[in-house]
Design goal:
The structure holds two protein chains of two kinds. By secondary structure, chain A is of the alpha/beta class.
Chain lengths: 846, 107
């Protein structure tokens, strides 16, 4: 057994436990902390700082026999830059001196949350009043053949890199061996590689990603880091995995996925970390990727908390120390009562480190996420420098500095505190005092990929410009750049402008609502109203050049006219997209999917029975529950649609339309233990009021009964969250599709009626002002939350009454399309098959 | 589906009123499936019924005076010669005319 790090000279720690047990009149509450890593120990420190030693008898369980040490410094110990004694944070004596019982070397197996007792692996138990899980994370070991011996131990010569014991073993191995392979080209792997190289080993890094440190760096930054790492003599293999370890008695080498074999007598696995959640799982606590906690770091048991790398807060796992410190402070405030309302709202993550001899600093995002994001890149591969910043609404939301971190202090300030940014954005990255130099997209390597969705390089964009594409739109059409998720559009625009050298023509159709009519949306709406244009053909005749119809403009105009005129709109079947013509969603084989309305996701046995009967009668190949809590009948033949609707006897759920679709709900206060509001009823009320409302793009809503957010309201076009005391938060502009965006808090209101009114007002404002197919997650940031708040909450433009009235007009015009067209087809042959000869391709039945 | 007859001038696939103005309908001419469209100006057009890109039902597409747009992936084809506006494979277009209220397609 190796020495106990931070141990007492006599090496006794259980003695304190016995003393505590002997003290039968201790009236303090019992606080038990499972985990003696950086998070667990920090919680104890923070609790003690707040006088918690008076309130709590504290017991800490640590699986390792050591005191508390600084795990971040392990790579320095491995490199020989630090002695292991120097990384001790809290020795065994520290615990004793502070009256804290440290049960070092004792693993906790499970928690009986009903009896409030912790069960340890040595058979002992410890009762608690408050329990903190700080179980941290462990090395992720990717599957590979030959990695383990028959007794399930790692093959000799294979090492994780997570603990002081791992580090000691690696140091011993480094002294005896000559060739190491490190699996994982992230931060930890590169540090391990560099440290082992320092001990004289030949080192090769195998990384599954397409570039190094892909968590923190963009591909260009990763490519430059690779150059720097390789210039040190470390060999890098990218985009491949280690599939097999060659043995059998000890490591002799590894085999890669592409069949190559590498010699190695030391194999270090640093392929990432996974939260340790077994204790929580065994104890019946809610675990997703990590142990799920709320803003008070509580698990779903009110007396059990989780902090650090094992905890999942608002969907995030943190692997950095700063968030852990923040969590520990909040938790100590809560436990000791120093601030009973303390909350943790997530962390902005920034890191600054030296990787394999290269300075790296990253914060926030590393690439633009929206069209309006500003993205500045300086790339000097030869010098090993890659700098970038992302600016949104004049605030720094991300920066990556590689090879040159001179500006990190200023950027950190701007990132953390929102310090004002220079108008000349280039000054964010370089000091211009020594002579201004024009840099930016010009410095991007020609082969750097600009559009990741469609694999379009800077060179391809430049070629399109050289080939005669004179507008950004033409370049996008020609190359398909920016046609995927759209996040690169800003960069595409910059490159086009740069490549055209000022000769770029403004895309004339860019500001038009539809390509066939040269008018922006407000002017188009005014003209339609003033001229009383009630049908799509009337709009073309009056407003299109030469009265020419345009096929690609028809659907958008139908939507707009229906919004403007409500029941007075004159329908023309040919102006509708096929989905709206037959009120079902066309599938790739020409069949349709049918989704009946199921308000708030609530159904009845009778409805389910009816759906089942219809599915059997029409031989529906797939019945599927949708993401919006409804039932989808897939593979319905076009000619069967009217009969299917009639047999279902339920209204259309509008799953096919650019329209309001559904309101997802949780069970709220009906059955849930934690529900703070009747989310189900409010969801049903919202869906009843807004059913069938046309909009520029689909709208999906959700209502949840508490901030646990079981129905994902934070990522909906409109999301409503009960926060207790009869109050509801209304979020807008959220999304969990091609891009993920948490909605912005529009307002907190104090009744369901106020939620319904505000939702309608927002939806109408969006309907009247959004571009065609512009989702709320683009619309809200484009218009700006501040503006939307002023307009909708303060009535700064005096239009709230008009918005309410406009929405009411559409609501009054609602009719169930299945009932209408199902009885009398709108045009002859409306439901006639469109591909009569060929048998329809079969959709696989599961 | 409709019964068709072959005349000297082509295949009779149906009656003009089978295709509402502005829309398309699918028919069988001989053993070929065709989509016939009647635009708002009364003009008739006919194409193969399945989109050459991914087999989409072209009769369900949207039209204007120049192009037909497939409903599956919105690829557009010119009536003039069936060529694609985005460089895809062209569609087959067929001559179509009206005779005594019947739609006649020439293959």
């Amino acid at each position: 057994m190796t020495a106990v790090l931070g141990g007492r000279p006599e090496g006794v720690s259980t003695l304190h436990f016995a003393m505590d047990e002997a003290d039968g009149i201790d009236t303090r509450q019992k606080l038990v902390v499972v985990g003696n890593g950086m998070a667990g120990a920090r919680v104890v420190e923070e609790v003690l700082e707040r006088g918690g030693g008076e309130q709590f008898a504290i017991t800490v369980f640590g699986e390792e026999p050591h005191g508390n040490y600084n795990r971040i410094m392990l790579s320095h110990v491995l490199a020989g830059e630090e002695h292991e004694d120097d990384i001790v944070l809290n020795s065994h004596d520290w615990y004793a001196d502070n009256g804290v019982v440290l049960r070092a070397g004792v693993r906790v197996d499970r928690v009986d949350t009903h009896a409030k007792v912790v069960h340890a692996s040595d058979g002992t138990t410890a009762p608690y009043d408050q329990l903190v899980l700080a179980t941290g994370s462990r090395s992720f070991i990717p599957p590979m053949a030959g990695l383990h011996r028959d007794d399930e131990q790692l093959l000799p010569g294979v090492f994780g890199f997570r603990t002081i014991d791992d580090t000691r073993a690696l140091l011993a191995a480094a002294a005896e061996h000559e060739k190491a392979v490190v699996v994982g080209g992230g931060l930890l792997g590169l540090e391990a590689a560099r440290a082992l190289q320092g001990h004289g080993l030949a080192v090769e890094v195998v990384h599954a990603g397409t570039h190094l440190m892909n968590q923190q760096l963009d591909p260009d930054g990763g490519a430059i880091l690779r150059q720097s790492v390789e210039s040190l003599g470390i060999v890098v293999h990218l985009a491949t995995r280690t599939t097999e370890v060659i043995g059998p008695d000890r490591v002799r080498g590894v085999v890669l996925a592409d069949g190559r074999a590498l010699d190695a007598d030391v194999l270090v696995i640093a392929a990432g970390i996974r939260p340790v959640t077994e204790v929580a799982l065994m104890s019946g606590l809610e675990v997703e990727r990590g142990i799920v906690v709320d803003d008070q770091l509580r698990t779903d048991d009110p007396d059990v908390y989780a902090v650090g790398e094992c905890a999942q807060h608002r969907g995030e796992l943190y692997g950095l120390v700063a968030p852990v410190w923040e969590q520990a402070r909040v938790l100590a405030d809560l436990l000791t009562g120093a601030d009973p309302d303390a909350e943790y709202h997530g962390s902005r993550t920034a890191t600054k480190l030296k990787v394999a001899g290269v300075d790296v600093a990253t914060m926030g995002v590393n690439r633009p996420e929206r069209d309006t994001d500003e993205f500045l890149v300086i790339s000097e591969p030869r010098r090993g420098v890659h700098l970038s910043v992302v600016v949104r609404d004049d605030r720094l939301i991300g920066a990556t500095l590689l090879g040159d971190t001179r500006k990190v202090a200023f950027l950190t300030q701007a990132f953390d505190r929102g310090a004002p940014l220079p108008q000349e954005r280039i000054k964010l990255l370089v000091d211009l005092s020594d002579g201004a130099e024009e840099v930016g997209v010009a410095e991007l390597p020609a082969d750097s990929q600009v559009c990741n969705c469609n694999g379009v390089s800077k060179q391809a964009i430049c070629d399109a410009v050289a080939g005669g594409c004179g507008t950004v739109g033409a370049v996008m059409d020609s190359t398909r750049a920016g046609k995927g998720c759209g996040s690169c559009k800003g960069l595409v625009k910059q490159i086009v402008e740069w490549a055209a050298d000022g000769d770029v023509v403004e895309d004339p159709t860019a500001g038009w609502y539809v390509p066939g009519i040269p008018m922006a949306k407000p002017a188009l709406m005014t003209a339609i109203r003033e001229q009383g244009l009630l049908s799509v053909s009337a709009v073309f005749a009056a407003l299109a050049p030469g009265g020419q119809e345009d096929a690609k403009s028809k659907m958008a105009l139908t939507s707009l006219l229906r919004m403007i005129w409500g029941a007075d709109f004159v329908q023309e079947n040919d102006a509708k997209f096929i989905n709206d013509r037959v009120h079902a969603n066309i599938q790739r084989d020409g069949t349709f999917s049918v989704v009946p309305q199921m308000k708030g996701g609530v159904t009845t046995p009778a409805q389910l029975r009816k759906i089942a009967d219809v599915a059997e009668k029409y031989e529906v190949p797939m019945v599927k529950v949708t993401g919006g809590q409804r039932i989808d009948l897939l593979g319905i033949r076009k000619e069967d649609l009217p009969a299917v609707w009639a047999d279902l006897g339920m209204p259309s759920g509008y799953a096919y339309g650019k329209s309001f679709r559904t309101v997802k709900t949780c069970v709220g206060s009906d059955f849930c233990r934690f529900g703070l509001g009747d989310s189900t009823q409010l969801g049903i009320d919202l869906e009843t009021r807004f059913q069938g409302i046309e909009s520029p793009a689909k709208m999906k809503l959700a209502v949840v009964g508490c901030p646990r957010n079981c129905a994902e309201a934070y990522v909906k076009d409109v999301g409503v969250v009960a926060v207790g005391g009869g109050r509801w938060e209304v979020y807008v502009g959220g999304a969990a599709g091609a891009s993920v965006r948490k909605g912005d808090l529009l307002a907190t209101v104090d009744s369901p009626e106020a939620v319904i009114e505000l939702t309608g007002r927002f939806m109408q404002y969006y309907r009247e002002n959004a571009n065609w197919l512009e989702r709320t997650y683009d619309f809200v940031p484009r218009v700006g939350l501040a503006t939307i708040k002023q307009v909708l909450l303060e009535d700064s433009e005096g239009i709230c009454a008009d918005l309410d009235e406009g929405m009411q007009r559409s609501i009054d015009a609602y009719t169930d399309p299945w009932g209408q067209d199902g009885r009398t087809p709108a045009t002859p042959g409306q439901f006639r098959p469109a591909l009569p000869l060929v048998a329809l391709p079969e959709v696989p039945v599961r | 589906m409709s019964v068709t007859a072959q005349t000297t001038s082509g295949h009779v696939v149906g009656r003009v009123e089978d295709v509402p103005p502005g829309e398309g309908r699918a028919f069988v001419a001989g053993d070929v499936q065709v989509a016939v469209f009647r635009l708002r100006d009364g003009s008739l057009h006919a194409t193969q019924a399945a989109c050459p890109h991914a087999g989409g039902p072209l009769a369900d597409g949207q039209t204007d005076a120049d192009v037909l747009v497939c409903p599956l992936h919105l690829y557009a084809y010119r009536w003039r010669d069936g060529s694609s506006t985005s460089g895809n494979a062209p569609v087959q277009v067929y001559p179509v005319h009206e005779e005594d209220g019947h739609l006649v397609v020439q293959l």
